[in-house]
Design a protein that fits this description.
Layout lengths: L3 H10 L5 E2 L6 E5 L2 E6 L11 E7 L10 H9 L3 E5 L7 E3 L2 E3 L28 H17 L1 E2 L2 E13 L1 H12 L10 E5 L4 H6 L9 E6 L6 H5 L4 H4 L4 E6 L15 H17 L13 E7 L7
Parallel strand pairs: 4-5, 4-9, 9-10, 10-11, 11-12
Antiparallel strand pairs: 1-7, 2-3, 3-5, 6-7, 8-9, 12-13
Length: 303
């Protein structure tokens, strides 16, 4: 499967010049020197102590609004969501389409810092700028206490990320100890590029709850998450895994509907359980369209 990592980068480069992109009424802001898309909950649903905050990290050559089906749904359910454009961002929301933006002129950002096909070369120096983006964005939001006028609860913060954004989320959650941000209480890793952590042994350092999502057609990443001694097995702390039938790597973007309703349902169940102390019933319910479901509230698997 080593060959696949080169083609994964090409697949993301080959995103259609005008694919459908639902920005989900995103608010575009400039925070901590970053272009940021934000989604806020209806005013009546914001509690007095503020709404939980979710940071979303996009995939390699994706962008802040690439997964608005999820970010907008989280906001509708009462979360404040912020999504920065990292240095490698390669799309922008425009008239309902996914189009190449000005960032495409930064050709260096179009080349991965280390080859995807060789995760052993990755270290905590690889895409460290993404970790810095997350930290700076949290600093800015918590310093102000609000996003677009909506108060946030600094004690209830989660992070979600797709592909390279999943790598970012896992790293910030503690898989790279030097990246760890203690303000993060939950990690949602959507088809995450976790192979560097398998090579480096960092997943046991995750002390916050983690949900992995994968797909049966996500042939380059999901097998490394679900296999014996894979990312799920090696993850420390409470952990969950849900796999969707027929979903490929881009199923977590607005370009491809890979069971979006189910993805949202399990993501909400996870964040609601960890950040809002709600029952975890859905996290243990294998719904139609789900090919594999695992829940382990303890430590690393003994398998």
């Amino acid at each position: 499967m080593r060959w696949w990592w080169g083609t994964m980068a090409l697949a993301l480069v080959a995103l259609p010049a005008e694919g459908r992109l639902r920005s989900g009424d995103a608010i575009h802001l400039r925070l901590a020197g970053l272009d940021v898309a934000a989604w806020t909950p209806p005013g009546a649903s914001v509690p007095e102590h503020g709404s939980p905050l979710i940071v979303f990290s996009h995939g390699f050559r994706g962008c802040d609004t690439q997964s608005a089906f999820l970010t907008a749904a989280l906001a509708a359910a009462g979360y404040v969501v912020v999504a920065p454009n990292h240095r490698d961002a390669g799309c922008r929301a425009a008239r309902g389409s996914w189009r190449p933006g000005a960032r495409l002129r930064d050709r260096a950002a179009w080349r991965p810092e280390e080859p995807f096909r060789d995760p052993g070369k990755w270290s905590d120096a690889t895409y460290r700028d993404r970790a810095a983006d997350i930290r700076a964005l949290l600093d800015a939001v918590l310093r102000d206490g609000t996003v677009a006028g909506v108060r946030v609860d600094p004690s209830r913060i989660g992070i979600a990320g797709h592909s390279l954004g999943g790598y970012t989320a896992l790293g910030v959650g503690g898989a790279w100890p030097s990246w760890r941000d203690g303000r993060i209480r939950a990690v949602l890793a959507l088809s995450p590029y976790a192979q560097p952590f398998l090579a480096g042994g960092g997943l046991a350092g995750l002390k916050v709850p983690v949900m992995y999502q994968g797909g049966t057609r996500d042939i380059g990443i999901t097998p490394g998450v679900r296999k014996n001694a894979g990312a799920f097995d090696r993850t420390g702390g409470p952990k969950y895994y849900v796999e969707f039938e027929g979903t490929g790597h881009l199923g977590w973007t607005d370009l491809v509907d890979g069971h979006h309703d189910l993805m949202v349902r399990y993501a909400l169940a996870f964040f609601d359980h960890v950040l809002r102390d709600r029952p975890e019933a859905t996290l243990e319910e294998k719904l139609p369209g789900v090919s594999d479901l695992r829940a382990d509230p303890g430590g690393p698997s003994s398998r």
